[in-house]
Structures are given as C-alpha cells and as structure tokens.
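Project standup — Tuesday

K.O.: blocked on the structure for the chain from last sprint. Re-posting the sequence here as requested.
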Amino acid sequence: MTDDPLYVGHAPTDAALDRGWLMGHFKNPADPRHSEDVEIKWGVHPPGDRREQWATGEVRTALLVLISGKFRLDFPHRSVLLDRQGDYVLWGKGMDHSWEAEEASTVLTVRWPSVPGYRIPDPA
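H.V.: unblocked you, prediction finished:
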C-alpha cells in the first residue's frame, strides 16, 4: 500500500480477490478502501446461487442495486424480485433477510456501518 488516498480499481477484478467486497472494515487499515462507516460489494452470482443461511439480528442498513439479471431478496414478511437494471431495495436494522439469484446476476450492495461479525464462513 502507498500513502496515496486515491485508489483506482476495476470492480469485477478487485471483487474476485475478497468475496466481492470492495470496501469495509475488513480491508487493511493502510488501504484507502478501509472503512468502518460503509461496506460495498460487487456481487456476481450464477443462476440458483443463494445465501447459505438467513442474516439475522441485523444492525446495519443496506441498499442493494441490480446491475444485471434477476435477483430475489427474501424478508420475513415478503419477497422482492429485482428484474430491471437499476431496481433496488433498501432495508434497515433488525430486518432478517436472505437472497437467491434467479438468473445470472450482478448486484451492488452498500451497507452501513461496517461492523465485524456477519461473515458466513468460507465453504470447506
């Protein structure tokens, strides 16, 4: 890392290095992409890809924007299907959720604040 506060990247390339995450508390503190305020993810999902388990006890707010494909978010009280580029959903603290890519999909997720403890372990 350098002391340069400017970082120029390519979302698909950088995302492939860290499970999709481009920014958050989990980046090296010397990296300009380190933030305890926000997390940003470039998610590329094959058809049928789904969250391994529900996210529960959420303490963050999240925004998910559909870049391409067809992507469903499930909440305890309803499901939301994003199927047009630019469709998005915003949910707040305490909202349990899960998701599934109904078609090959690319989504951009922004969550705030960036807090430890929500990572699902890597598959063995």
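K.O.: great, moving the ticket to review. Residues 11-15 form the longest helix (5 residues). The mean pLDDT is 91.
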